[in-house]
Amino acid sequence: MKGQNKLFIAIIVALLLGVAIGGVVHTQYPESAEPFSKNIKLLGTVFIRLVQMIIAPLVFTTLVVGIAKMSDIKMIGRVGTKAMLWFISASLVSLFIGLMLVNWLEPGHVTKLPIQDAAAAEDLLKSSKSFSLEDFVKHMIPKSLFEAFATNEVLQIVIFSIMFGVALANLGEEYSKPVVKLFDIIAHAILKMVGYIMWFAPLGVLGSIAAVVAMNGFKIFEVYAVYLRDFFFALAVLWVVLLLVGYMVLGNRLFELLRRIKAPLLIAFSTTSSEAVFPKLVEELEKFGCNNRVVSFILPLGYSFNLDGSMMYMTFASIFIAQIYGIEMSLGQQITMLLVLMLTSKGIAGVPRASLVIIVATCSMFGIPPEGIALILPIDHFCDMGRSMTNVLGNALATSAVSKWEGQLENTPQKV
């Protein structure tokens, strides 16, 4: 655990240093804030791109090997069914908590924000107009595996990998064994790379945080104090619910799991990217004792279907915008919105700022001015920190829970 603790401490130090450096630039050298932010943000960009570089081959190789080794199609169906039941239940609970707390706390009635024009949200408004069932299907089913690899479309890679893995499992050991062996070696080599890349995480965290603080300063927290307070309170409630369910399934081993994933949680929080910790999360869950076949099958699915933090934010932000504009929504309308979000949010995780795109589309559907998204854009980075960290927690719990239900969770975890 020594290496893991060193990384965790290094990230904490980088986080605090980033806030301090960004604060100094914003207050002492405001004229240099924009170029400084643009340049130091490159540290975060380099880290995230290093991780993105290995996500597609890692998902493909681990998933194909995991399914090919399962060989039992019934087991694949059983594990997949349990995973989807968890994903759907967790998504509904997340959406409901967001809906319930935004109605109770009413941040939109307390926060005094000027109604802005849609210029800041122009790209998001364009993205949402193209959202349709046809786009959803195109986004889900790959036209080309190489295109899916090139664009890091995790869901498309998952679908191809499942089909390829099932085909290998039914091909017979004589033909499949060398292919499975090759992919297994590649997967382990990529996981070895994860260890090297993660030591760049502190620099990535420093760059990401310093850039945001240098541009926005600390005054932004005063303007959005109520919104941030209420959103993070809602996230805390969601964490309590997730951890209670996790404790019911895992017992005292939940605390061991949290110790294992503390570095991925912190990286996701600092970089606002749950994708950036995918390889590290695979590694830590296997060390925790989860079966590698279950991890390689469920975790990529979770990254498309089980984004608990993002789900909660969708209802919270949508109703917040309605409250700002003084639009009263009936209970029936809000429940309909919840169900619409439940369906439209699945499988679009690869879309940049997917949560905001879905919020804009949903607002348009329910007569809420979609340009209201411009009201929350200035603070979205900080909300995204909480969302990303919650997404990582939800997927770690889902994978561990299904491993336990399948009797595939080792009681003695692997040593680091």
UniProtKB/TrEMBL annotation:
InterPro entries to which the protein is assigned, alphabetical: Na-dicarboxylate_symporter (IPR001991), Na:dicarbo_symporter_sf (IPR036458)
Compartments (UniProt record): Cell membrane
Keywords, alphabetical: Cell membrane, Membrane, Symport, Transmembrane, Transmembrane helix, Transport
Membrane topology, from the record: Multi-pass membrane protein
GO molecular function annotations of the record: symporter activity
Domain of life: Bacteria
Gene Ontology cellular component terms for the protein in this record: plasma membrane
Name of this chain's protein: C4-dicarboxylate ABC transporter
UniProt organism field: Chryseobacterium angstadtii
